[in-house]
Design goal:
- There is one protein chain.
- This protein is mainly beta.
- The protein has a single domain (9-326), classed as 5 Propeller (Tachylectin-2, Chain A), CATH 2.115.10.
- It is 5% helix and 48% strand.
- It has helices at residues 36-39, 173-176, 207-211, 333-336; strands spanning 18-22, 27-33, 45-51, 61-65, 76-86, 89-102, 120-129, 137-138, 152-159, 165-171, 180-186, 193-202, 227-233, 239-251, 257-268, 277-284, 289-295, 301-307, 313-322, 325-331.
- The strands form 5 sheets. A 4-stranded antiparallel β-sheet has the order 1-2-3-4, with no helix packed on it.
- β11 and β12 (193-202) form a beta hairpin.
- The longest helix has 5 residues, at 207-211.
- GO terms for molecular function: hydrolase activity, hydrolyzing O-glycosyl compounds.
- Pathway: Glycan metabolism; L-arabinan degradation.
- Pfam families: Glyco_hydro_43.
């Protein structure tokens, strides 16, 4: 594809998408993991596509590379990049890992069996830049932001009504079998955590998962996954968390088999990150997930997800709130090519 020809979502490799709608330039910045075959830059990191209409996109620019971070603890990953504004600067959150830095294997989970896979250092780092186009420089090259003895991923920024910043992240099922969502306070400059993590909920709290697993025993791996949190304040004041997980393959009434990755959400009707969190049924199935909400420049509430999980592409949906309930209005196939 020529360098000057716009790209479209069906042609754009896109895992764990995150959109920043920059009102100053009326430009959408779409962040994802670096794909060297598309960006032309080798290395683990983050790239960004840009658009003014959500249909035609520029070729991506690389904004973060681990190899450019002196003394960085990680070697792989670059998953789930997000960019947030804080204190007049831009902060990149992205998950890295290092399989050569093993973690102590915790005791067997509640199923009474050894945990299935090795545990190694994985977690979200925070990097800063004065531009949405980077380059981003990691704040702490020695360790991830969440506690380093925990195997975590997909950290996101949440700022509570008092102005306190938090990182909300998924605690890996690889350590817990029943994956959890947790939150930890951040220092005002985001360089470190303050206090102990706060447990929010576990994946099996979603009753529709347990309904599909006879006897409550997982029959597939991964069994109970927490993935891709994003927090959003609903118009009536409740706090919404988009998150993703896997469901068991179940034959439908028409004989088709559903399952795979799903986009779901939870609601804290108290409006606080502490909850309690009430789980809702999936918004989108069909091997879709890791979504986030943003507003288009014409005022529409939009959700972007990736589908399918392997060789993913971005899919766009118009959304609406009805009280505490988040609903899909329609897929924007005119923008994302359908499928």
């Amino acid at each position: 594809m020529p360098e000057t020809q716009p790209m479209r979502l069906p042609d754009m490799p896109l895992h764990d998408p995150f959109v920043v709608a920059d009102g100053t330039t009326r430009t959408y910045y779409l962040y994802t993991s670096n794909v060297p075959a598309v960006s032309g830059v080798d290395g683990v990191g983050t790239m960004v596509y840009r658009s003014q209409d959500l249909r035609d996109w520029t070729r991506p620019v690389v904004v973060f590379l681990t190899e450019e971070q002196e003394g960085i603890w990680a070697t792989e990953g670059g998953w789930a990049p997000e960019v947030h504004t804080w204190g007049g600067r831009y902060y990149l959150f992205t998950t890295l890992h290092n399989q050569d830095r093993e973690l102590p294997v915790p005791p067997p989970g509640r199923w009474g069996t050894p945990l299935p896979l090795a545990n190694y250092m994985r977690g979200t780092v925070i990097a800063v830049s004065d531009s949405l186009l980077g380059p981003f420089t990691v704040l702490d090259a020695a360790r991830p932001t969440p506690p380093a003895h925990l195997m975590t991923l997909d950290g996101t920024l949440y700022v509570d009504p008092s102005g306190q910043p938090w990182m909300v992240y998924a605690h890996e099922w690889l350590q817990t079998i029943d994956g959890t969502m947790e939150a930890v306070r951040l220092a005002p400059d985001l360089t470190r955590t303050v206090g102990d993590p706060l447990f929010l909920f576990k994946a099996s709290d979603a009753s529709w998962i347990s309904e599909q697993i006879p006897g409550g025993v997982p029959h597939q791996l991964p069994p109970y996954v927490t993935d891709g949190p994003q927090l959003y304040r609903a118009p009536e004041g409740s706090l919404i968390m988009l998150w993703s997980t896997y469901e068991k393959d179940v034959p439908g009434p028409d004989g088709t088999v559903g399952g795979g990755y799903v986009q779901t959400y939870a609601v804290s009707e108290s409006g606080t990150v502490a909850g309690p969190w009430r789980q809702h049924r999936p918004l989108v199935r069909d091997d879709s997930g890791h979504g986030m909400l943003f507003h288009s420049f014409d005022g529409r509430l939009m959700m972007i997800v990736h589908r399918p999980f392997e060789d993913a592409r971005g899919k766009l949906y118009e959304m609406e709130f009805q009280g505490h309930e988040l609903r899909v209005l329609r897929q924007r196939t005119d923008l994302d090519g359908g499928g």
